[in-house]
Amino acid sequence: MPAAAAISPSVEPKPVYRAGMQAIGMILFWWLAQCLTAHFHWPIPGSLLGLMLLWGLLELGLLKLHWIEQGADSLLRHLMLFFVPAMLALVDHHELFSLLGIKLILVVLISTVVVMCGTACIVEIGFRLSHARSR
Predict the structure, then answer these.
(1) CB–CB of 66/19 below 8 Å?
(2) Where along the sequence do coiled-coil regions lie (predicted)?
(3) Could you tell me if 60 and 37 lie in one domain?
(4) In angstroms, rounded to a whole number, what is the distance separating the alpha carbons of residues 44 and 35?
(5) Closest to 13 measured CA to CA, from 65, 71, 79
(6) What is the pLDDT of residues 21-58, one digit of tens each?
């Protein structure tokens, strides 16, 4: 293969590199949102603001889904790795295995169910609105 063809812009990057660059792009959204919330002293987590910015740009069509899809899929596929340090911290806190721990587990389970139900309702509303628009 000639050297010019190896650096041609028409050559597609490998999927792992594309996913990595897309993940870095999403991390930049998070970082920008963290900086904005810190600078303006907004009472909203930067991660939530970044998610809203990302969603808004996707909804407006300024950001195409295929520009971030592989990176998001890769992050979701490896999501459990981000929770391993939290699980290892349980070893240091034996009090979590007492009545306090049971209360915490109940709160986590109930809040998880509430979030899942809320998400399901929002997705259902979105599907209905999208179906109504397509008519």
Answers:
(1) no
(2) none
(3) yes
(4) 12
(5) 71
(6) 998 988 898 999 999 999 999 998 988 999 899 999 99
Average pLDDT over residues 97-105: 83
Question: 65 and 130 share a domain?
Answer: no
The angle that helices 46-60 and 15-40 make with each other, rounded to 10 degrees, is 120
pLDDT digits (tens, 9 = 90+) for 105-114: 899 999 999 9
State mean pLDDT over 71-91: 78
Question: To the nearest 10°, the Cα dihedral for 4, 6, 9, 13?
Answer: 180
CB-count exposure of residue 87 (10 Å: 0-12, 13-18, 19+): exposed
Q: Are residues 56 and 100 in the same domain?
A: no
List CB contacts of 135: < 8 A, sequence separation 6 or more: none
Tokens of 108: 């986590």
Q: Do residue 74 and residue 96 come from a single domain?
A: no
The answer, yes or no, to whether residue 76 has pLDDT greater than 60, is yes
Residue showing tokens 């628009």:
133
Residue 106, H or E segment: helix 99-134
